[in-house]
Amino acid sequence: MDTNEDWAEKKEQEKNDRYISLLGFMNHLNHREKSGWKESQTDFTTGVRGSLPTNQFFARLESLGVKNKKTREAIRNRTVQRTLSMSDMILKFFFIALNSKTDLTIQILPTEIVNKNMERFNLHLQPPRP
Predict the structure, then answer these.
(1) Which residue among 28, 57, 69, 101 has the highest number of C-beta atoms inside a 10 angstrom radius?
(2) How far apart are CA 49 and CA 40, in angstroms?
(3) Closest-CA residue to 6 (of 43, 44, 45, 42)
């Protein structure tokens, strides 16, 4: 949770720990095959509340070849917007799980999600029970 001061560092370490053996294996294969390739990992960490280590984010985008400052800023803005949007969606689903009343579910979720999933799972609304 990005309420803690060191949240980003902890997440980075979790990601590094998770993928270190895969990176090592891929680099071992590249070395054995004399491919000349070297694998590396570039993490982008955004907190659930939209926090984002901006300087680090920009530096990592630049290391991937995104040199234009306005482009990096646009990517950062969209990343934060999407993160907040997904957090909002997750909280809505959590609320629905706690208060699973069909009529409330329909009101809370965006119409396109409700319609798509109602059709997908062949669900039909029933009148509320008295």
Answers:
(1) 57
(2) 28
(3) 45
pTM: 0.64
Distance CA 38, CA 29 (A): 10
First-to-last CA distance in the chain? 41
107: tokens are 């009101």
Q: Please write the tens of the pLDDT for every residue from 29-85.
A: 999 999 999 999 999 988 888 888 899 999 999 999 999 999 999 999 999 998 888
Distance in angstroms (rounded) separating the CA atoms of residues 117 and 30: 44
Tokens representing residue 65 in the block: 């070849």
Closest to 25 measured CA to CA, from 64, 14, 33:
33
Of residues 57, 94, 52, 90, the one with CA closest to residue 72 = 57
